[in-house]
Amino acid sequence: MRRLTAIALAGLFLVTVQAQEESAGSQSEAIKDAERALTVEGPSAEGYFNLGLAFQKNDQPVEALLNYQRALVLDPGLKAARNAMSALAAKQHVPLPPRTWQDDITAFVHPEVLVAVGSTLTWVGMFVLLFTMFSSRRKSWVTGLGVVAVLVGSLSFATGWVSDPRLANGSLAMVMAKDGTELRTAPTNGSSPIVSLPAGSPVGVLSPRGPWTYVALGGGAKGWVPTDTLQPVVPGETL
Amino acid sequence: MLAVPAWAASVSARLTSEHTSVGLPVTLQVIVDGTTNAFAPRDIEADGLRIQLAGQSTRVSVINGRMTTSRVYSYQVMPTKEGTLEIPAIEVTVDDSSQKTQPLRLEVSPGTPPSRRPAPAPSVPAPPGGGQPSQSGQQTTPDPDARMAFAEIILPKDSLYAGEIIPIEVRFYFNQNYSFQLLEEEPRFSGEGFTVKKFTEGVRSEQVVDGTPYHVLTFKSALTAVKSGEMEIPSITLHVLARIPVEGPAGFENLFNQFFRNSPVPGFTEDRELAVSTDPRTIPVKALPKENRPKDFGGAIGEFSISARATPEKTGPGDPVTWTVDITGRGNFDAMAGPTLVDDEGWRTYPPAETFEADDPVGYGGTKSFEYQIIAQEPQTQTPVAEFSYFDPNTEKYVTVKTEPIKVEAEGSSQPVAAASGESGSTPAPTASPTPGIEHLAKKHARSFTPLVRKTEFLVANGVALLILVGVVLFMLVRKARQGEGARRSRMARERNSAIGGLRNARLSDDEFLDGACKAVKLQSELAGYGDSTSWVRAMEPDGGPLTDLLASANERKFSGGLAVRVSPEDRSRITAALEAARK
Asked: pTM for the whole thing?
């Protein structure tokens, strides 16, 4: 009887282990699928969101945060990525920069659209103004239209520029060291720490200097972190 | 009035109190009588004392019609050790000569100093020793031992957990016997180990502390410890400008005090910046217990309740149900992860959109809502259940709460859909989900990490537009210039024709004829591209002719002092004919 019970328990254990392995294998497969899709179809915000989701399901929160951040760099208005990153960051106690007015704008329109529309409108306005300048039959409403087009176009262009994380935030990186790192006042291990940065914390790279990199946090604090703890958000970039 | 000679200047020193305790400053005054042309050192070295110049003033006294001036240097003397300490003689340069003060002694005790009127200090770091604020409402007399300003921090508890948020109140007390002006709108907090939310706007009130009436400015905020251990809450500081009474002129002050009972002499005050700070305070910060920690615990600490609502109650195939989970209570909403979904089989769910509505100014209490879009994959009669775990610091236990399932009628959809959570207005599109269990988003736009403004296409397009713009500007400028030249030539041709036409008038005098003909020649030569009339006429008539004669007649009239030149009718005809021929 004991023997039968032992066999049954062993069988149950094997089934459980097998199920866990299958689940882990399924999640690993999901990561590979998402990576393959990015390679084949090219970069997209949705692709990086899918990859982040796959990492999150595979219990790799830091890699998930990195890919959510990549998705948001490509499309700051991708609410799914923003929500997923916000929830995961809260769970991992990762401080995220506060929401800004640029986030409110990009929630409605992609910054590239603002840049493209803005530059087109500016050029159209300039040509209209040029026409009225040299035309023998000047009409004030046409001139006004040109001025408005130039002003609105320039404003749209500038808004798109400052709202685009690829332009406004400079070079973004993320703390990838498993145990996080310390933001320090000077590029030495002996310098006093300013704040602890858990793994997955996004930082703005201001100046890489060999083994140490000068970075800025979303809240405005600046300091030094070891370069080898960081990974650039933009794939292929180096620090 | 008599001027005081330089050699009459004298230097003396005095302490506002000869007794104090370690860490409690007194004021040292170096007084130069008889001149204002004096220079005193900024820092003075003394064993056990830190002596720094805090300010200087000029004093004018008029006694029996004789005016004397004095220069007073005020030093802050901070004792750093106990005992009888000596302040050395201080060398002061007075009118190019050096004079020294007498050395002074200061008794420094380790404990509370004897009762005395405190000297105005640039920084007032601590509340009155042992003095508890009493409620205002009764008139009191000024206490000479009262402090000018102090601050205190009110914490609701003596210990807290790492990550826990607690409301705090910071009170700044300002003695009503002094005048203050705020230099900043809210206090400053800087230090490691704690984070503080933005302070609320200061609320003013009045309070009597140890018999002294104070204006009280109260700020509220919420404080969170970021790590465990014996943590020190750093000072919270507010900078103010204090108007401090200083001694009036000798003699005048005595006279004034006879009438006004030791009140400050009006008009003799000094503005000084004060940093009013709370005392740093050590508080034990405990780590969250690992025992009985739920697997879905996401860092929420506080007291919370959970509820849910769903709309619409009935949906067609593929239509999403908006299912909102509200977490209400008091705690660290900023660091809170969303609830865990259970019993969600047959539902496709997406990451929720989060909103927070605070019910107090610092965001300590409120409701955080997680709005899920859920789509039934098979016919469903009730929503999933949301489970939320938090740590209750009062009972020091983990608590798990969950919502009740809500009845809905949702028809199942065999079509997988991919709707980005919270993207209202977007139509769910078919997904290319390759892996079961992963809510993939379908690719909408190919994006590049290179921003548009750095892409070659954008730069080329804008470069082309710029080139076109410059080209058009140049073209228009040239065209306008040409149009101007053409118009000028047309005008000249019209004038020439008019001049030639006028020559046919037989009633013209000889002078008028000559003028008209010369004008026609000049215009014609310019139209023909010649710089002057003579060159054109020579080119037209190399062997002479009527136009050559015309110019000769014009010169003759010009250089003969205005004598009349006769032009015969035949000559007129020949000249006119020649001009008409040249015009053609």
From this structure: 0.42
